[in-house]
Amino acid sequence: HLLHLPAGNLVTSDVATEAVAEVVRSKRANGYPPSVGYEQSRAAVAQVHSDPAKGIHLTANDVVLTSGCSHALQLCIGALADPGTNVLVPKPGFALYRTLLENAGVEIREYPLIANQNWAVDLEALDDLIDHRSAAIVLNNPSNPCGAVFSAEHIGDILRLCEQRRLPIIADEIYEGLVFGGTPWCSLAEINVSIGVPMVCVGGLAKSYLVPGWRLGWILIHDVQEALAEVREGLYRLSTLTMGPNSLVQVALPTILRRIPPDWHKGLIRVLQRHADVSFHALSQCPGLRPYKAKGAMYIMTEIRTNHFRDIPDDLAFAQMLFNEEGVIVLPGRCFSAPNFFRVTYCAPEPELEDAYGRIMAFCRRHLHS
């Protein structure tokens, strides 16, 4: 049967499900919400992401609710970048960045991540790409597709470069908290308190709460120096292009954020770490492949050593042939500007993962040079 590894099937907390069901039954959220979101819902997001002890202070006025994190990214790009400017994005990186920037008429500049250095940003290459037309940089931590997690020290190095080059940041933290393998979770905002780069941070319920279809995201405006006044106004205005995000989930949002027990989140991370370890071990045994160990999110990137195979010239051929011969679907690396890699999402049940990796092993052995 078909094994679709780009997708997953982990399920959300019963607390989240019941919170939305209660709102539906109450009939109190059937009207249009404000374009930026209900104030009590924005206040709940602000509270969860504030940490006064670390100098992070947010209010409802610093939050814009959106129809998923993708919509949040679209609004941030629209508010920060004019047609003809450029925005820097990671390579490898989430394919939607390119789609959104091309649609906005903004030049895409890809800064490299170094695979054998835990996908760290190549700071020298990044510095060379920045010029007077650079409107912002997108930083994705933890990373899709790499499963990388930046250390606090590396985040500080990136932020200091952005401060020197006066480059605002779009922090894509949709995978916030989904970290394991020894690198602690550290938000960019936490390190930025002492540096002060103007920053908008996007996130949402999709990944950390396992409800991508609920389409509830947010933008956090971190602007202690008040350098983003026009951007803030732009976000408010752009939000009026829609009638506000999902009203049912908005009203349930304070309950979801405050009442899901920490043990549920810890249990999710344990499952993801176990699946990441199983994936790395299994793919390491496949001849011609080199996986890079994931430390967060829910993905693992694997290099295809095409010179080991007699008839697999690139990642697209690998993915097509694997599907045709073994019924396993992986995403070719070119989707992420990473030729001769492929990405696996390891959210499927462990027996299905083991079945898929067994098929990949057989496929690789069959196509090796004799």
Q: How would you summarize this macromolecular structure in one to three sentences?
A:
By secondary structure, the protein is an alpha/beta fold. The protein is built from twelve helices and 14 strands. Helix 2 packs parallel to helix 9, helix 3 packs across helix 4 and helix 10 packs parallel to helix 12.
What does the model show?
α6 (152-164) links the parallel β6 and β7 (169-172). The chain contains 12 helices and 14 strands. The protein is of the alpha/beta class. Helix content is 40%, strand content 17%. The strands form 3 sheets. The protein has an 8-stranded mixed β-sheet with strand order 2-9-8-7-6-3-4-5, with helices on both faces.
Any chance you could write out the topology, listing elements then pairs?
Blueprint: E1 3-4, H1 14-26, H2 39-49, E2 63-66, H3 68-80, E3 86-91, H4 95-103, E4 107-114, E5 120-121, H5 123-129, E6 134-140, H6 152-164, E7 169-172, H7 188-192, E8 199-204, E9 217-222, H8 229-239, H9 247-259, H10 262-284, E10 289-292, E11 299-304, H11 315-326, E12 328-329, E13 331-332, E14 341-345, H12 350-367
